[in-house]
Amino acid sequence: MSEHTTPHLPTDSVTLTSGAAMPLLGFGTWQIKGSQATDAAAAALEAGYRHLDTATVYGNEGEVGKALAESGVARDDVFVTTKCPPSKPGLATLRESLDLLGTDHVDLWLIHWPGSDGDVALWKDFVAAREGGLARDIGVSNFDAAMIDRLTSETGVTPAVNQIEWSPLLHDRDVVEQHRSRGVVLEGYSALRGGTLEHPVIVEIADRLGRTPAQVIVRWHLQHGIVVIPKSRQADRIRSNADVGDFELTVADLRAIDALGPNP
């Protein structure tokens, strides 16, 4: 895709607990640091992404915040997610994240992975942050259904989102149903890793449609209502990954891709 070509971005979103709309397409920033993080986030915003995903342990919240501040895009038009390690003090960590991001709130704050104590105390900090307006919605990452149920039973508050590793090769209808039955939005990361881009089924569909394998994978997520956050350091690829708003996969294509997972 030429840098002068305007990508056809999707407008798909999902409504969270607060009533906020979370774009199904976001830009991931894992393993992108320093000026590359600023440049990549800036390229994503310029391409039309309105959802940025970062985390305390990524070490790039300041760079992502700089890109947002310099983009000319209104803060309220961008959905910003960050994450807290379970070993960190909740509210103090969030305030550090907000300072680095240059904002007075995040749209979504996640416990980055399960801790050894079940995370109930930390989750109560998350609830307090939501009630105090520091985080509009709160959720978890890398949790299973039993872990989510414990937080709900102990606090009465169900995570709005669970961000887990997800791709066609990991597709599991039971996992999808576990989330939907609890009202938890499933968000996937590492969608373009693990051999998905080279899989013959995906390559065949991409070739037939005149699309890239990455575009097919992103489109597959969107049509399943699953949030996807592809990442790249390259502006052309950032734009290309988002250029999925002007085509759809057929039912047969979806079924063929679903069948790559362990439980289609």
UniProtKB/TrEMBL annotation:
Keywords attached to this entry: NADP, Oxidoreductase
Residue ranges annotated for the NADP-dependent oxidoreductase domain, each copy included: 25-260
Source superkingdom: Bacteria
GO molecular-function terms, A-Z: oxidoreductase activity, acting on the CH-OH group of donors, NAD or NADP as acceptor
N-terminal signal peptide: none
PROSITE patterns: ALDOKETO_REDUCTASE_1 (PS00798), ALDOKETO_REDUCTASE_2 (PS00062), ALDOKETO_REDUCTASE_3 (PS00063)
InterPro entries the UniProt entry points to: AKR (IPR020471), Aldo/ket_reductase_CS (IPR018170), NADP_OxRdtase_dom (IPR023210)
Assigned protein family: Belongs to the aldo/keto reductase family.
Stated name of the protein: Aldo/keto reductase
Organism ancestry: Bacteria, Bacillati, Actinomycetota, Actinomycetes, Propionibacteriales
